Amino acid sequence: MAPDRTRFTHTSPELIGQLFNGNIDRALAGVTFTETYAGSLGPSIRAVTPVYDSGGTLVGLVSAGVTREQISKQFAQSVPVILFVAGGGLLAALLSSLLVSRRIRRQTLGMAPDELRTMYEHHDAVLHSIGEGLVVIGQGRSKDARVDIVNDEARRLLDLPDGPVPLSSIPETMRVDDASPAKDQVHLTDKRVLVVNQHPVEWEGNRIGTVLTIRDHTELQNVLGELDSVRSFAESLRSQAHESANRLHTIITMVELGRNEDAVAFATNELRVSQQLIDRLMNAVHEPALAALLLGKMSEATERGVDLTITEDTALGPVPSLNARELVTLVGNLVDNAIDASRASESPWVEVTVMEEDSMMVVAVADSGPGMTPEALEKAKGRGYSTKSGSRGLGLALVSQVVKRHGGTLTSEPAMGSMLVVRIPLREAEAPR
């Protein structure tokens, strides 16, 4: 319509050109509005809005309306559709809720929320109260994989940080993706001797992860090491007692045969040789326990048919960085391994040198055995290595533990047979981190 109310269009052609009867004052003032009115087609609802040209001048008005009857008809037609859509949505929601509920109950093994809360509380209490380390590793082995569960004791034994634990923080030797269980495997860290049990976890025939239980056997291993040293000393004494008995019988027989001078010469010569060896070691080695260990190993080697020699270069003063227990562990295990390895040769021999060189303690043990490849030595330093049966074979791993603790080195060097060399600073040194 024009601003003067003249109609340009209408649903009834006879009304075109006539004046619009409704209220247009607000539209003429620039306001769009709606109103309910009694129109020519019956009760209606209409909206009126002004129309402007490009210069902003009011050039006309537009009035659009619809009867209430038409609205009612459209609403009546839409109700079934609305009800159908609403019903379908409700049914879909119910089905989805049922499916989600069934899935959740299946994943929670049919337990209700209060049962889950109770189980979690008990699980958390048990997890943090048991005295063994517990680690649960998921089936995935990607670089970003994390340990699913780790308790307080496992964090202490493995020096793990608080919070989520990446799989890379677990020692590599404990991350073997092996489906078979492992019982009482010995693993060595820089500070501890750990006994680890590995059990695969399965659910409905599918493997879902691995459970590791970890026990600290550091103190027990130290006691066993001391016991082994005592046993070695006892074997040495038994061997010496046996040899002394043989010598005594020989001397008595010489006396009975009237060979008194020969008996005296035999007795004094044996005593002189033995005493010279004892005096040389006691003067050359400052630590009495180490000197006693070397004497005991010589007797043990002789009884086992191995020629063990302490070289003339052996001379070791005080070693502030190592205590007596560590010295015995270090030298004793190297010599034991050498004796065992040398017996594979026709003429077994072992040569031991303990000395100071450039502010370092050097322990070199050579033998007539087949030697070790660099790969075998690395394996031995990591977990324990031996060709011996049973649970033996931790010697080199224990040696490596002492060496690493004091910032030293353990290497295999060329020799007539095999030679392992340990170098450790004589001064007090901070253990490597």
Automatic annotation (TrEMBL):
SMART domains: HATPase_c (SM00387). Signal peptide: none annotated. It comes from the Bacteria. The keyword Ligase does not apply. Gene3D superfamilies: Histidine kinase-like ATPase, C-terminal domain (3.30.565.10), PAS domain (3.30.450.20). One of its GO terms (cellular component) is plasma membrane. Its EC number is 2.7.13.3. One of its GO terms (molecular function) is phosphorelay sensor kinase activity. Keywords: ATP-binding, Cell membrane, Kinase, Membrane, Nucleotide-binding, Phosphoprotein, Transferase, Transmembrane, Transmembrane helix, Two-component regulatory system. It holds the Pfam family HATPase_c. InterPro entries: HATPase_C_sf (IPR036890), HATPase_dom (IPR003594), His_kinase_dom (IPR005467), sCache_3 (IPR033463), Sensor-like_sf (IPR029151), Sig_transdc_His_kin-like_C (IPR004358), Sig_transdc_His_kin_SpoOB (IPR016120). It catalyses: ATP + protein L-histidine = ADP + protein N-phospho-L-histidine. Residues 239-428 form the Histidine kinase domain. This is histidine kinase.
